[in-house]
UniProtKB/TrEMBL annotation:
<dbReference type="Pfam" id="PF00293">
    <property type="entry name" value="NUDIX"/>
</dbReference>
<dbReference type="GO" id="GO:0005829">
    <property type="term" value="C:cytosol"/>
</dbReference>
<protein>
    <recommendedName>
        <fullName>NAD(+) diphosphatase</fullName>
        <ecNumber>3.6.1.22</ecNumber>
    </recommendedName>
</protein>
<keyword id="KW-0460">Magnesium</keyword>
<dbReference type="InterPro" id="IPR020084">
    <property type="entry name" value="NUDIX_hydrolase_CS"/>
</dbReference>
<dbReference type="InterPro" id="IPR015797">
    <property type="entry name" value="NUDIX_hydrolase-like_dom_sf"/>
</dbReference>
<dbReference type="GO" id="GO:0006742">
    <property type="term" value="P:NADP+ catabolic process"/>
</dbReference>
<keyword id="KW-0520">NAD</keyword>
<dbReference type="InterPro" id="IPR000086">
    <property type="entry name" value="NUDIX_hydrolase_dom"/>
</dbReference>
<dbReference type="GO" id="GO:0035529">
    <property type="term" value="F:NADH pyrophosphatase activity"/>
</dbReference>
<dbReference type="InterPro" id="IPR050241">
    <property type="entry name" value="NAD-cap_RNA_hydrolase_NudC"/>
</dbReference>
<dbReference type="InterPro" id="IPR049734">
    <property type="entry name" value="NudC-like_C"/>
</dbReference>
<dbReference type="GO" id="GO:0046872">
    <property type="term" value="F:metal ion binding"/>
</dbReference>
<dbReference type="GO" id="GO:0019677">
    <property type="term" value="P:NAD+ catabolic process"/>
</dbReference>
<keyword id="KW-0378">Hydrolase</keyword>
<comment type="similarity">
    <text>Belongs to the Nudix hydrolase family. NudC subfamily.</text>
</comment>
<feature type="domain" description="Nudix hydrolase">
    <location>
        <begin position="37"/>
        <end position="159"/>
    </location>
</feature>
Amino acid sequence: MKFIHCPYCGEKLDKKSIGDEGVVPYCNNCEMPIFDLMYTCILTLVINEFNEIALIRQEYISKTNYVCVAGHIKPGEDAENTVIREVKEELGLDVVNARYIKSYYYEKKDMLMLGFVSKVKKDSFNISSEVDEAQWFSIDEALVNLKDASIAIKLLKDYLKEYNKE
Ligand SMILES: [Zn+2]
């Protein structure tokens, strides 16, 4: 997100050269630089003890493609807590262990997505109203059901690369 006006006082931003940062948007009224912002989100593979992956379908995103659990990090929350909260909200499952894998920049929405793997115990889902369907898939099925070139499939492939090394 690029600011045109200062988010604190509303003044139109100027440009100013500041040390190593180079030329940055600057509010002359607040006397401070106003850096561009991006959103920070998590996405997580949810994997049970049988190595099955929980994927969800949200009709406002797609009627056919599955996605993995994802959500915005709220101010004051660390990324691990966001993972635990989103898995509980969207699937009704308790995360036993959440491990960071890799980050992905989603340019279309100016989002930095932090990719995790969440271990859970296999159970029936208690899905949120935002979710239309959740299902357990084998890893091979998950690779077929995730959209090509999506961040979710990149995360799954990066996880498998790491997992196969272990
Ligand atoms: Zn200002």
